[in-house]
Amino acid sequence: MAALASCSSGNQPQAKHPSYVTSGQFTTAHPSVEAAARDYFDDYPTHVEQPIAFTHMLHLKNGMQCTDCHKGVADGPDASIPNVQLCMTCHQVIATDKPEIKKMAAYQKRGEQIPWRRVFWFYQSAHVRFRHGPHIRAGVDCATCHGDMKQVTVAVRKAGLDMKFCVDCHRARKVVTDCTACHF
What is the per-residue pLDDT for 9? Predict the structure, then answer.
């Protein structure tokens, strides 16, 4: 078992997220004391601007499941972010006149992936090894960490996903709280 978030330590947040974080301590790798403090206190942005205004609420209300788009979440470490081909599987014929779908189609036509930005992640400096699979198999609902996506349009960082959040959840479920379960 591991801490609850969506990005394993091997994946780094994409553009607009500090890439200078390396140690979890203030060093010259941080451009300012404020940046070091944000890293130290796990102060992550709650809203991340996306290239496409994807509506989780609409897709889930139409019967889709998280695992339909976030492939491999039950087996691998990460909830993969869908590629443009997966999106366009449906949107070649559904809502093709909508502006956001036209943007997606343009990415596909150019042979580019949509540059989605992660909302949930751990900086490598946290030394957190997270795996979605055990949480899915244990019946932990996605909403526990990600909020009720049926009630929101875009993904926002709801839970703090800090050590207290994770340990409290593990204790409540009477599962492993050994440091090496989550940290390497």
Answer: 32
